[in-house]
Each structure stands twice: as structure tokens, then as C-alpha cells.
Design goal:
With about 190 residues, this protein is an alpha/beta fold. It has seven helices and five strands. The two termini are about 20 Å apart. Bound molecules: adenosine-5'-triphosphate (ATP), (3R,4S,5R)-3,4,5-trihydroxycyclohex-1-ENE-1-carboxylic acid and magnesium ion. (3R,4S,5R)-3,4,5-trihydroxycyclohex-1-ENE-1-carboxylic acid (SKM) binds next to loops.
């Protein structure tokens, strides 16, 4: 495994446990998680992608079997990654609502949890395009704000690191995140 030494000058950082990325819809969990894993040269897993690969598109699952069934698939996909005696260092990006499951909340104690935070202005354009998020099919802006407000305290409680993702591009955010992860890892040891 390589360390997090990036051409952009990020500090050295070698993860020793999974890094889990959480936060509201469209804040960048998938793209930032994937870029972080690429720079750290560790595996990247996205819970939504895992579900889609096995069961087809998210809107189809919601339409055919309902949100509760999707939540069960999601909790299982996450447990497959984290519920092992010694989970390896990797980056796991979650869907926006995954943290509501109590089993998932417990498993996150085995990981370094990164909460990507942003206000609605940052995600407005992203969520008003049709992007396959069934919960945002009607009135996406108001619904995003409501869900973000309800889930915000849960994200904050579970987070080891909170990163404001407004006003920066993905490489800048990954560089900053590696610095924060290095600091957090010094505290853990
Ligand atoms: N910092 C950023 N600057 C510009 N565009 C971004 C940034 N972060 C993410 N994006 C873009 O926003 C969109 C949503 O990003 P992404 O799919 O990673 O969000 P997400 O948090 O994983 O959403 P979901 O909850 O649906 O899984 C993508 O088109 C992505 O390229
Ligand atoms: O925030 C949510 O509840 C969701 C977010 C997406 O990532 C998907 O997991 C799904 O559309 C539900
Ligand atoms: Mg995603």
C-alpha cells in the first residue's frame, strides 16, 4: 500500500483502518471517496454502486420493492465490507440515508468517519438535474433541505472528521482531507 503522498503536496498518510464517507445527497461522497482512494492507492467501494451492480438501478428497487427493502440491501452491503474481525484500509462511500440504520451506526465505530457537509446552494444544480435519486423526484430542493436537517445531527454525531465541501474542487478537497486524516490518525495512536 502506498502512502498519501500526492504530487499536490499532501502529507504522508497511511490508513490503518477503513475510511467511511457520509453526508447528504450530492455533496460528493462518491467522487471524493473515489479520488481519495486513488491518491492513497487503496480500494474504493461505494454502497450504492454495490447495490446497483447486484440488484439494478436504485429507482427501480424503490419502485418495485420500496425504500425499506432498499435499506436492508444497503445495510447488508455495508456489513459485507465492515463486519469482519479486521476490516482492511479502504474507502467506503455510503448513500445519504445509510447512516439511519442502527447496525450501520455501530459498524462505523470500526472506521474513521468523514462527514462531507454543504448547504443547499452547493448542491442545487446537481439535484435539479435528474440523477436517479428517487427521494428527490418531487420538489428536490425542499426535500433535500428537509432530509439534510433531519439527518444532520446523525452525521455530526458519527463523524471523526467534518469537511465543508462548498467552494473547493475535488482535488483540493482530497488534499485537505488527507491532512485531516493524518491529524486524526495521530490522535488515534
Ligand atoms: N467539489 C465539487 N466540485 C464540483 N462538482 C462536484 C464536487 N463534488 C461533487 N461534484 C459533482 O456533484 C455530483 C454529485 O457527486 P456525487 O455523486 O459524488 O455525490 P454523492 O454525495 O455521492 O451523492 P449520493 O448521495 O447520490 O450518493 C457529481 O456530478 C460530481 O461530479
Ligand atoms: O439519501 C438517501 O436516502 C439516498 C441517497 C442515495 O445515495 C441513494 O442511496 C438513495 O437514492 C437514497
Ligand atoms: Mg454517491
Amino acid at each position: 500500500m502506498a502512502t498519501g503522498k500526492d504530487p499536490a503536496g499532501a502529507p504522508d498518510f497511511t490508513p490503518h483502518r477503513p475510511i467511511v464517507v457520509i453526508g447528504p445527497m450530492a455533496v460528493g461522497k462518491s467522487v471524493i471517496g473515489a479520488e481519495l482512494a486513488r491518491v492513497l492507492r487503496i480500494e474504493f467501494i461505494d454502497s450504492d454502486h454495490k447495490i446497483v451492480a447486484k440488484h439494478g438501478p436504485v429507482p427501480g428497487i424503490f419502485a418495485a420493492k420500496g425504500e425499506h427493502h432498499f435499506r436492508q440491501l444497503e445495510a447488508r452491503a455495508i456489513a459485507d465490507v465492515l463486519d469482519t474481525p479486521k476490516a482492511k484500509p479502504l474507502v467506503l462511500s455510503l448513500g445519504g440515508g445509510a447512516v439511519l440504520d442502527s447496525g450501520t451506526q455501530q459498524l462505523l465505530a470500526r472506521a474513521t468517519v468523514v462527514f462531507l457537509s454543504a448547504g443547499v446552494d452547493t448542491v442545487k444544480e446537481r439535484i435539479t438535474r435528474n440523477t436517479g435519486r428517487p427521494l428527490l423526484s418531487a420538489d428536490p430542493i425542499a426535500t433535500w433541505e428537509r432530509l439534510a436537517a433531519v439527518r444532520g445531527p446523525v452525521y455530526a454525531r458519527l463523524a471523526d472528521i467534518t469537511l465543508d465541501v462548498s467552494k473547493s474542487n475535488v482535488p483540493q478537497l482530497v488534499e485537505r482531507l488527507i491532512g485531516l486524516l493524518a491529524e486524526e490518525s495521530r490522535k488515534e495512536n
